[in-house]
From TrEMBL:
Residues 5-67, 68-129 form the LIM zinc-binding domain. Pfam families: LIM. It comes from the Eukaryota. InterPro entries: ISL1/2-like (IPR047169), ISL1/2-like_LIM1 (IPR047244), Znf_LIM (IPR001781). It is found in: Nucleus. Keywords: Developmental protein, LIM domain, Metal-binding, Zinc. It comes from Oxyruncus cristatus (sharpbill). This is ISL2 protein. Gene3D superfamilies: Cysteine Rich Protein. One of its GO terms (molecular function) is metal ion binding. GO terms for biological process: axonogenesis; neuron fate specification; positive regulation of transcription by RNA polymerase II. SMART domains: LIM (SM00132).
Length: 129
């Protein structure tokens, strides 16, 4: 339907022989579909993610909107193995005692203070014994 569609990027009418359709209702000039953060062209060779009407490359989408480690605040992939403590999420390499640095494993007792994890040795026994 060239000539009838409006580009979601620039708002202009698409008269080119080709257009890119990102979702059922958003069409783009080939030259206008770029990452809103880094400007990388997004085409059939690059994965495209949409948020609030803006297009992002995978790297920037993950960095801006992905789950972040409660300890180091770095983004990580949804396929990474994680540990959870209350509403905090940690990749395995960051699930460590803040005092001694020991890796905490499933089944280990620990205490959560703010975002800091403390192993049993560093937080002591529970108040009621």
């Amino acid at each position: 339907r060239p000539g009838l569609a409006l580009c979601a990027g620039c708002g202009g009418r698409i008269q080119d022989p080709f257009l890119l359709r990102v979702s059922p209702d958003l069409e783009w000039h080939v030259a206008c579909l770029k990452c809103a953060e880094c400007g990388q062209p997004l085409d059939e060779t690059c994965t495209c993610f949409l948020r609030d009407g803006k297009a992002y490359c995978k790297r920037d989408y993950s960095r801006l909107f992905g789950i972040k480690c409660a300890q180091c605040r770095a983004a990580f992939s949804s396929s990474d193995l994680v540990m959870r403590a209350r509403d905090h999420v940690y990749p395995l390499e960051c699930f460590r005692c803040a005092a001694c640095g020991r890796q905490l494993l499933p089944g280990d007792q620990f205490c959560l203070r703010e975002r800091d994890l403390l192993c049993r040795a560093d937080h002591g026994p529970p108040p009621d014994g």
